[in-house]
Amino acid sequence: MTSWLVRILPAWSRVRLGSVPGARFVSQTPSPGATGSPAVSGLSPAGHNDAHGHVEVSLYEKNRDFHGFHKDPQVDVWNMKVAFFFGISVAIVIGGTFVHYLPDHGASIGPFVLTCMKSSGMRQWARREAERLIKEREAKGIAILDGNYYDPSKIILPSAGEEK
Amino acid sequence: MLKILIPTLMLFPTTWLATPKWLWTTTTAQALIIATASLTLLNWSSETGWTSTNPYLGTDPLSTPLLVLTCWLLPLMILASQNHISPEPVSRQRTYITLLVSLQLFLIMAFGATEIILFYIMFETTLIPTLIIITRWGNQTERLNAGTYFLFYTLAGSLPLLVALLILQKEMGSLSMLIIQYMQPAPLCTWADKIWWAACLIAFLVKMPLYGVHLWLPKAHVEAPVAGSMVLAAVLLKLGGYGMMRMIIMLEPASKNLAYPFIILALWGIIMTGSICLRQTDLKSLIAYSSVSHMGLVVAGILIQTPWGFTGAIILMIAHGLASSALFCLANTNYERLHSRTLLLARGMQAILPLMAAWWFIANLANLALPPLPNLMGELIIITSMFNWSSWTIILTGTGTLITASYSLYMYLMTQRGPVTTLITAIEPSHTREHLLMALHLIPIIMLTLKPELMWGWCF
Q1: B70 and B21: one domain?
Q2: Over 70: is that where the pLDDT of B314 sits?
Q3: Residues of A in contact with B79 (CB under 8 A)
Q4: Domain contains B185
Q5: Is residue A2 pLDDT above 50, yes or no?
Q6: Per-residue confidence (pLDDT) for residue A112, from 0 to 100
Q7: Which of B162, B164, B196, B321 is most buried when burial is the number of CB atoms within 10 A of its CB?
Q8: Nearest residue, CB atoms, A67 vs list B86, B432, B454
Q9: Separation CA A154–CA A137 (nearest Å)
């Protein structure tokens, strides 16, 4: 049983409520079309027309398993399968795995080369290596980091009197 | 880069030669394959920053996230448009998809350009398909006004940019981004130099948009069909940010003083447009103003030219692109059912469409910058950087964050909670297509939370 349509035309809005048979009905009392309908009725004959003048019928009427892609049920199902496969299985899952296993390049020197030299890639390796070295040096009981980069005993300085 | 460009070019024959029954299936599939292939661009193997296989097109850690976002958005646009375009004749559907694909092509070339003039030409070229989409497929008569505002605001900003670029070419000898980053910027002392400085940036500030020149955005976003709104919010605004980040390296050291008015406008814009959001009656207009608000933060982050400012800007651009596009898709699901964007008309939707309410919730949480999503990370990095630049900005950015949370919650509560409007009597159930669309928007945001180094750029 189709329910009659109520078209409301307030001046400030163009809401067109559809008679959408088979759609999810919100339980309202009284039922629409009855004289007690809260909406302004009787402005136009029943039959909600879309831009082309056809009556809008929900595609769920003909196809209970409508997925939103196409009115032909077979094309609809295939479109759904293709979209989900390429969207989720390929792009997100396989693409995500690819991105996860990308090498540790990180950011490289960019336009700020004149102002601040930023380090290039291997950030994740650097952090792991640092953690490993800290653990190793703490286990050995030696200082984690020495103030001198080079061993001072290995640096041979010329004596003060040897100027020529 | 060609492995992305050639399949995108081949989408033109696919669109025009596919049988009408399988048109949308094939274009969706091909666009998703292109999107997957674009992920290979994330493999930055070069030590010099730029990965380029030819002199004209290359990628670096700034352009790659935006390129991947662009390629990801095309299948989403096709999915979103499928329903509202289906009543039209097939040749018009093909034309619509052709416009979306051509926009994609120009955007890939824009983000991949190594030569600033190529970037400028592609920047302008993207205006044409967008204008056609807005003015031909928009739903209200205001679309003509919207198209005019959109076209002429952007053109008025970018014609000075053309002159500025030609001057720069004459001065520097080359406009290749690979070379310009190593050139010593000339000191800008005369008035003409200052005008040249402004000319370099105004086009991008209009595009972002900066608060004073933002009027085109609510009109264009609202009047465009869903695919137009998606691409505008997600990618076209970011063209402005990207352009600014490329140009601003050469504009040192004058930018330290000259950028002040624009930083102030950007920060003030966050608060003003956020407050405007709280008073909107049109749902799409609310989302459009929220885009202006977020982009105000991005503009401020870029103009202070600190490494963290840039990093925060890129992260926020990518995260906002996905979140804002998701919100426009959700607004469209309402619009397709009710043919109205008025907030008051679609209340209490959670009771009717509970699954869609879940998507509304996540998208609004992303918009209000919920941790640990990258929206928050980008905002926090920019706010921290701005605080370091000047402590007083925390008042504006903090208030802005508060207002952002308010209007995002307001949007959620107005559409989903509360009593169901008595005017709504029959709403079509949510389509699988709509759920997939939302999933494809929001899953990447969540995944980016786990690997933000894809978005950091070269500064972090």
Answers
A1: yes
A2: yes
A3: 83
A4: yes
A5: no
A6: 54
A7: B321
A8: B432
A9: 22
Q: What is the mean pLDDT of chain B?
A: 93
Residues B235 and B363 in one domain: no
Mean pLDDT of chain A, nearest integer? 71
Chain A nearest C-alpha distance from B270 (Å): 28
pLDDT of residue A26: 54
CB-count exposure of residue A58 (10 Å: 0-12, 13-18, 19+):
middle
Three-class SS of residue B271? Answer: helix
Residue appearing with tokens 């949370």: B405
Q: Is B236 in the same domain as B331? A: no
Q: Name the band, by pLDDT with cuts 50, 70 and 90, for residue A39.
A: very low
Q: Which of B204, B235, B252 is at the close of a domain?
A: B252
**Cβ B47–A102 below 8 Å, yes or no?**
no
Nearest to A8 among B337, B423, B439 (CB): B423
- Count CA atoms closer than 13 A to A160's CA, side-chain side: 0
Tally of domains in chain B: 2
B274 and B238 in a common domain? no
Q: B346 to chain A: nearest residue by CA?
A: A15
Domain membership flag for residue B48? no
CB contact under 8 A, A108 and B458: yes
The angle formed by the CA atoms of residues B403, B341 and A40, to the nearest 5 degrees, is: 125
Residues B133, B72: one domain?
Answer: yes
Set of chain B residues whose Cβ sits within 8 Å of the Cβ of A107 = 44, 49, 61, 453, 456-460
Asked if A110's CB is within 8 angstroms of B458's CB, the reply is: yes
User: Rounded to whole angstroms, what are the CA distances from B311 to A55, A103, B318?
Assistant: 53, 21, 11
Confidence band of B25 (pLDDT split at 50, 70, 90): very high
Sign for the pseudo-dihedral over CA of A84, B40, B369, B410: negative
Name which of A23, A28, A113 is nearest B422 (Cβ-Cβ).
A28
pTM recorded for the entire structure: 0.87
The two three-digit tokens of residue B417, written as one number: 């909670």
Q: Which residue of B has its CA nearest to A111?
A: B181
In B, which residues are within 8 Å of A28 by CB distance?
A: 422, 425
Contact B408, B362 (CB under 8 A): no
How many angstroms away from the CA of A128 is the closest CA of chain B?
A: 16
C-alpha distance from residue B387 to each of B73, B272, B275, B308 (Å)? 34, 20, 22, 11
Q: How far apart are CA B250 and CA B161, in angstroms?
A: 14
Closest residue on chain B to A27 (Cα)? B425
> Of the residues B252, B270, B290, which one is the last residue of a structural domain?
B252
Summarised one tens digit per residue, pLDDT across range A52-67 is: 566 677 888 888 899 9
State the smallest CA–CA distance between residue B458 and chain A in angstroms: 5
Residues B308 and B181 in one domain: no
- Per-residue confidence band for A21, with pLDDT thresholds at 50, 70 and 90: very low
In this structure, are B159 and B232 located in the same domain? yes
B289/B377 same-domain check = yes
Chain B residue numbers touching A95 (CB-CB < 8 A): 35-36, 39
The ipTM (two decimal places) reads 0.93
Higher pLDDT, A129 or B424: A129
Of the two residues A39 and B67, the one the predictor is more confident about is B67
Domain assignment present for residue B285? The answer is yes
* Residues spanned by the domain of B425: 261-459
Chains A, B: CB contacts within 8 A come to 201
Give the residue-averaged pLDDT of B84-96. 95
Q: Which of A21-30, B304-313, B402-411 has the lowest mean pLDDT?
A: A21-30
The residue of chain B with its CA nearest to that of A41 is: B423
